[in-house]
Amino acid sequence: MPDRPPRQRISFDAPRRAGSGPRSHWPPQPGAPPAAPSWQESPIVRRHAWRWYEALPWIVAVLVYFALPNLGFATELLIMVLFALSLDLALGYAGIVTLGHAAFFGAGAYTVGLLSIHAGWTEPISGLFAAAAVAGLLGLLSGLVLLRTHGLTLLMLTLSIAALLEELSNQFSDFTGGLDGRNLTFAPILGWFDFDQLYSRTQYIYVLVVLFLLFLIVRRIVYSPFGQSLTGIRENILRMPAVGAPVRWRLVTAYGISAAIAGVAGALLAQATLFMNLTLLGLERSAAVLIMLILGGYGRLYGAFIGVILYWTLQHELSKEFPRFWQLGLGLALIAVALFAQRGVLGLAEDARRMFRRKPAA
Amino acid sequence: MFGADLASILLGGLAAGMVLFIISVGLSVTMGLMGFVNLAHGGFAMIGGYIIIGAMDAWGVPFVPALVLGFLAVALISIPLERLVYRPLYGAPELYQVLLTIGLIFVIIAIITMIAGPTSITIRLPPSLSASAQTDLGFITYSTYRLLLIAFGAALMLLLWFGFERTRLGARIRAAVDNRRMAESLGINVARLFTLTFALGSGLAGLGAALSAGFLGGIDTQFAFRYLVLFLIAVAIGGLGRIHGVFVASLVIGTLDFALKLEFPKGGTVFIFVLTILLLLWRPQGLFGKA
Asked: ipTM of this model?
């Protein structure tokens, strides 16, 4: 034993490139203790800083308002962005794989719709809060029981809950409008701006403002220590309890927040289109939002924006060129993404950038 | 005549359950072997249904040979797909498997739409099996086709049971479902086993889709999505890779679905979803699954 060479101490610091991650202070270095980094230098604060290109989607969104006369479709795109963003929080950050996120979207839409029809509560903004509360509560309650499971069971449970809500809404179609749907009316926004049935110009601004505010909240959450712990759970669910993170509560909280935002998105759709029906809750919507998010790249905030636009462009162009079998192109694209571009378009862009920037090996 | 009503509902439900079993059993075994979330299973079923009905329509192939043809064709189609498309994602997160197989359903739907058109096609059963053909069972006169379906499903279950419990191949599959790595280290080629069960399971699903067309009147391109949840529920409740599990689950779900849709045409399946949620919360691994 004694003639064994002394063990080399493994350094966790050495191979890191500058800026590639947090500096580890373990094992302790000989000599002076390292100075504690000031708060501006902490990597999480640096990552939280706004970058210039983050303004681009919003500039484009404002330009679209002036460029297009009819904004009905653009409004729906913005709503899908918000929906995909909510899914990003659950799936991209917390790693909860769900096939039933439309349950919360639909719950929000039905909240404002049913309040408007049966209770005469037509004020839109308070309606959004009600939708967030209902969907968020549904998310918290279902999350409490569902998030004990994982993998296929979780997938099946989320799928079943969405299907259950859909069937319930169908069962009580006298009350909800069922498959045929119900037309809705809402009071003017802030008591001033009427909903624009023809061109959706009011709705567009309204949705854009709500999207921006909620985006700020999501961005804040993602870069907070809470958001970081979610990422930790996604990356290694066994290690996080070991560092003292209450994994299940973090997941349930994230699921609840995500559900509340999805509920707001659903409520916005009901308000913007002045209509609600069963398709708000369907498996197609859950699958579509999942596809959009993965196409764009999940776990990176702007993936929701890119994915929704990309999915729509793909679907629109393909159905224009090949009206009868546009699904072929869409299906092939999904297969290609699943096999070759698992981090979505933004992931591809990142890889490309890294390839061009690669410096000669040090 | 309450007794006869009840018997006819039970027989109809049993027939529906048998169809569900024939379609889902392959999914159960392949998901149990590889843990692959294969949402496209209904797509393979749909291919089989179209091939069988198409062969009967276009070439005048009789019903039973068409079934055999469809089974073989789907099994053959599924082998290259499994090798090329599924294999890279074994062990990948479920998310990508979901994305891949949803994409595959889209492709299958598009190709079928190209060949057969977007509208539903109806199956023309031989007169001895058509909807009006009845058999007198003594206590009730009932559709011959459905009775034969029940008999066929039961026979298939017996055959599969024998295959699983009494043959070398079945022993290997059971070993691989229980512990894939251990089975591999004992020299069982699990990848080949998987290809084989995938092909057989897809073929059976194709057969099941055609048989369901005789039951539902026809098949259309939305088949893969519409019944996906039912297939998955049968598999999840039965427990992955447990054929007796998927058999029991299919019969229960099929009977419930049939009876509830008859009694409450609008939202009767609420009960099935509630049952599924409670069951999976109670036993996440399914009724017969390994803890």
From this structure: 0.85
